[in-house]
Amino acid sequence: MFDPIVAFFQRVFTAIGRGIGLVVAWLAWPFVALGNWYRGRSWIIKGPIALILLALVLFYGYFIWQTQAWTNFDPDYVDRYKLAERKTPAGSPVSGPGATTTGQSADVTPANRAALDAGTSTPESLAVAQLPAGTACQHSAIVDVAADLIDFNVNQNAWISSMLAYKIGFFGLDWDDTPWLDNKASFQRGINQAVRRTAVELVDSLGRVRGTSGINNELQSARGNIQFDEETWYFGISPFGPKTPTPSFYRAAMRDLRKFNVSLGKCDAVFDGRSDNLVEFLDRIASDLGNTSAIIRERSELHNGGWFDTRADDRFWFSFGQLYGYYGILSAAGADFENVVTQRGLTPIYTETMKQLRAALRIQPLIISNGREDGWIMPTHLATMGFYILRVRSNLVEMRDILAR
């Protein structure tokens, strides 16, 4: 009596199998036809085609490898700087007759003000002139970290955003619009965003005596180079012709930052570690994180397609890279402004902020899901990342308010 039921299911599964076979045959037909055509050609035709196919395999194989191999990725990279052992703020003497650990830089004396106003001297030269011969100054940890982050992005790893395969896309579709091979590019752009913001602040306030001194040439050059667009390859259409690729500009920025730190170590440059500069620096970073939080909120609220949101991974890994960069830069700022942090009682909240940044870097899901916040099947990784960004931003705003009192 079960024979009709069994026969029914047999027909169903047979029909399903036939349908799958037709789909596979339809998908495979172009390749089968090309294979048959290829086998019927002479080696004069087959040879060049084989070389082209081999070149494509190597081209995309290299690209896929570079997008999946995250060389020297380390959420605990801050530990290698041993910032807790530094007791002298950036720019202050650390050796020689003028060595000090108070964090007080040399002041421009009233006697030298006339020369300064007359344009015959700069605050840097006046301050350096007051230091005894043989004095060495503390280099900037912020500059060290920023330069090392650039090195991580373009030397230890390939810069994905300007690779030709990335620019071509997936059959003309931007890789950012697909779920594949774009996570590392977004992560690198997030780090780059943190470095760009830092470079601007180094030029405008940290690397000069604001309002009285000129802009440092090395920092100015670094800012210009790191602001270069992220997608330039060796050749372009608009304008048409050969170009200098993006990584070359970023490497130049890295060299400029290192040159500044060498000058600072010789006391030939200035790092203005006043509390108002720290206020401005924290405020700019808080604003930067606020912009990222708004982007995450918009994506989370309006495009919550769970695992099927192909742009969620871009937003997530950009935010992750930004926090990765700011984790090192803010840790370094705590060392460069050690006197301000200690004197204004910021140590507890500063330490907590670093812990929150490190906690955010533990979120490394294999597949990014942008589910509903009240959903129970698909997780909401974007909302989780947004939560950590807001926690860090809230602490930065609180520190800024404390310093501004």
TrEMBL record:
Region (Disordered): 87-107
InterPro entries, alphabetized: UCP029693
Keywords: Membrane, Transmembrane, Transmembrane helix
Ranges of biased composition (kind: Polar residues): 98-107
Transmembrane annotation, as ranges: 12-32, 44-65
Protein name (Swiss-Prot/TrEMBL): Transmembrane protein
Organism for this UniProt entry: Sinorhizobium alkalisoli
Classification of source organism: Bacteria, Pseudomonadati, Pseudomonadota, Alphaproteobacteria, Hyphomicrobiales
